[in-house]
Amino acid sequence: MADKKSAPLPASSGGLMRFFEDETKGFKLDPKIIVTIPISLIVVSWIADLFLAP
């Protein structure tokens, strides 16, 4: 019984690469972390500006 994951996908139009097949090395982070870090830095800078501004 053949595995469905190994079945070829239909040809893509325009010669587009199937990017989801490529596996890259490196850190894998949750998108929630990527969004949370900049937002928290903005909030911390606003709080610092409110309390430390003369």
List the helices and strands and how they pair.
Layout: H1 31-52
Can you tell me the residue ranges where pLDDT is under 50 for at least 5 consecutive residues?
none
Q: Assign a percent range to the helix content.
A: 40-55%
Measured between the Cα atoms of the first and last residue, the distance is 73 Å
Largest sheet: none
Count helical runs. Answer: 1
Mean pLDDT across all residues, rounded?
Answer: 76
Number of strands: 0
- Tell me, briefly, the overall form: rod-shaped
Q: How would you describe what is shown here?
A:
The protein is an all-alpha fold. The chain has a domain at 29-54. 41% of the residues lie in helices and 0% in strands. The protein is built from one helix and no strands. It has one helix at 31-52. The N and C termini lie far apart (73 Å). 0% of the residues are buried.
Outline:
The protein is mainly alpha-helical and 54 residues long.
Q: Which characteristics define this entry?
A:
54 residues; mainly alpha; 1 helix
